[in-house]
Amino acid sequence: MINNRGSVTLIVVDTSVPAASYPPDFEALTTKLNQSFLVGENPWLPFRLAPTSVQLAIHSLPVNYMPHQHEDLFNYISDSILNSKDIVISAASFLNPNRQSHMEKRAYSVAVNVEPDSVQTMLPSIYLYGNTRTVEKAYSSFPITQCQKCWKYGHVKPLWNAEAPTWPLCSLQHTKVEHRCPNPSFPSGGNLKAILNCCLASPTR
Asked: Which of 3, 87, 190, 191 has minimal CB crowding within 10 Å?
């Protein structure tokens, strides 16, 4: 697959083959691409494995233990996690990069990257800086991120915590499978399956 920037992504069909089996062929694949296309002075670079690390959020870290510089966070938190759980992290960042907002609170949260086989060791908590801190999977979201369960913006589905789902066709609290038109005689079968604007009794919201 090639995106609009010209980057080539190798899509693997057989997911039972481990990723470690492919790197020996990356150089040959790249050479073949550069020989087959007129790339000029902008050749394709060798393939590399996609990152497999999992991002976890650690909450309620005390502000008085926060490093003075953002770039010091990795060394600061990695040593503490290694001492506490014997786990090596590959990256660390503040969940909220605004340092001023940290100083207005008593605690802050960080996101750390760990290998998949270390996730269960990290969850659900870790002992850091004299107390137990909650650990959970981190999910990236933006103001334009739309939840696929309540359909509001600003968060992702795993962080949705309402009591019942919302189906966007009618805005009522049920799933797509449970969506039924209240008019049982509608000829298009809207009372049996989800149909957009199936009748006046079931308007789109």
From this structure: 3
